[in-house]
Amino acid sequence: MTVETQFAEFDSLPLDCGETIAPVTVAYETYGELNRERSNAILIQHAFSGDAHAAGISKETGKPGWWDNMIGPHKAFDTTRYFVICSNILGGCRGTTGPSSINPATGRPYGASFPVITVRDMVRLQKKLIDQLGIPRLLSVSGGSMGGMQALSWTVEYPDAVASAKAILRALDHDDVPSIRAMAARMVNDLSPSVGAGAPARTAAGEAPAATQELYAELQAIEDLLTGTESERRQGLERLHQLVRKLRTH
Description:
By secondary structure, the protein is α/β, with parallel strands linked by helices. The chain has five helices and 14 strands.
C-alpha cells in the first residue's frame, strides 16, 4: 500500500497561551475508506518524535510507516473495516506548522519565537482537521506516550465527538505544566552563563545577580500558584506563559 501525505490549511488557531498562529498547515495521511454513514473513522496520534506517516509505504520517501505493523488490512486497525487518519502534531515540523515554518510576520522561520503549545492545542488542530473531513464523531482515538495524552485530551475536550479512546503508555495524571515549567527554568539558567549544577551565577558578594534573583522569585511564586486552588492554578499557568514570553525576548 503506497500512501501520499496530504495537507489541510486553516486561517488561524488560538492557543492556550493566549497567542494565535495564523495561518496553520497540518499534514496527514489516511488509510481505508470512510463509510457512507461517516461512522468508521479512527484517529491515530503519534508520540513526540513521530509524524503523519503511520502506515503503508510513503510515496515521498519509500519507507514504511512507524505503526505499519498495526495499521492495514486485517491488522489491529483493520483498514478493510475502518477509515484510519494520522496527522502530524502542531509544532511537529514534518509538514505541520512548527518552529521551522515561515512566520508570515517576519518572512523568516519562527525558531525560538514559536509560541508555547500544549497537548490541548495539538488536539484543537486535530479537531479542525476532522471537522474539515466531514466526520461528526470519531469511532476511536488512539496513541502511545504523548499520543496517549492526546487521546485522553480528546475525551475531555470533545466528549461528544469521540466514541472511545485507546491511550497507550501514557501518564496517569499529567498535563503540560511540568514541561513548560522546566523549559522556563532552563531559560532562566541560560541567562546566567556561569551557572553550574542549576545554581545561579554569583556576584562578587556571593549573591545571584538581581535580575536572576527576580526571575527565580517569579518561578517560585508561579510554583506556589500551580499547587493551589483551581483559580490559582489558572493564574499560575498564565503567569508561566508570560514568563516564557519574557525570557524569549532576552
